[in-house]
Amino acid sequence: MDVVFLLYLIAVYLSNYNLYIDWGKCLVGIMAKIKLFIDFDGTIFDTSEFKNEMFDAFFRCGYTLPDIKSTYVLESMDYKYNPEGHLDKLQKIKPTNHKLALARIENLYKNITKYLYSDTTEFLDKINRNKYEINMLTLGDIGFQQKKVDRSGIAEKFQHIYVTDTQKWDYLQNIVSSREEFVLIDDRADTLEKVKAKFHKSLCMQIVRQDLDIDDAAIMYKEVYSGIKIKSLPEAIKYL
Predict the structure, then answer these.
(1) What residues contact residue 90 under an 8 Å CB cut-off, 6+ apart?
(2) How far apart are CA 116 and CA 40, in angstroms?
(3) Kind and range of the H or E element at 83?
(4) Measured distance CA(6)–CA(61) in Å, rounded
(5) Which residues is 182 bridged to in the sheet?
(6) Order of strands, edge to edge, in the sheet holding 132-139?
(7) Which of 25, 79, 147, 199 has the fewest CB atoms within 10 Å, measured from its CB?
(8) CB atoms within 10 A of CB 179
(9) pLDDT per position in the chain (240 positions), as tens?
(10) C-alpha torsion 119→125→127→133, nearest 10
């Protein structure tokens, strides 16, 4: 039965008892919010700049740039990069002051809010929260991703924070149904293509903020995405 017609019948029934029905509230109560998933790295967080400063911290500990880059690629092969794992690989090449290196990594988190893209808060505040359920969906090492999100101070802007170490097109099966309408904003072309293929009613947008070089493990980022592309988060508003 049509929802509006059903509400009409309810209103007629209640009117017999001189009761008032607020149609707007009824409709809001019946209509579920659309889930909006926003990626973290490369979408709201400048991962490239954070990585550069991580490299600099390792360099100041006595490691060479070629070793830092090669071990970074190894540590990132499974998309579960962790700076402590990166450090362990460097230590096998050249043992240095391990405690000092850990302290320099920890020091990066103290000012981590500066890596948030400047348009992030503005975008999150403009989203219609009566229509959308705002969620973060981030892939990577659980502990490292959670720490970045928590220290960034952005978590309070989201209704749910989903941190996964499995690919997003598989993880989403736990959150949405195959025929559900939802929105995903991500910077990785391969992720968006596979989500679109698996969830036909999804609206997927690729945000292209940064160019990755040959040292990055996320080479799949360079794939051509066939859907909507944006260069900043506010551009996404017109599609919501």
Answers:
(1) 58, 63, 67, 68, 71, 96, 101
(2) 9
(3) helix 83-93
(4) 69
(5) 35
(6) 160-164, 132-139, 34-38, 182-186, 203-207, 228-230
(7) 25
(8) 8
(9) 554 455 455 555 545 555 444 545 444 445 689 999 999 999 999 999 999 999 999 999 999 999 999 999 999 998 899 999 999 999 999 999 999 999 999 999 999 999 999 999 999 999 999 999 999 999 999 999 999 999 999 999 999 999 999 999 999 999 999 899 999 999 999 999 999 999 999 999 999 986 555 455 454 455 678 899 999 999 999 999
(10) 110
What's the pTM?
0.82
Judge contact between 209 and 236, C-beta under 8 A: no
CA distances from 64 to 27, 52, 67, 69, 76 (A): 62, 14, 5, 9, 18
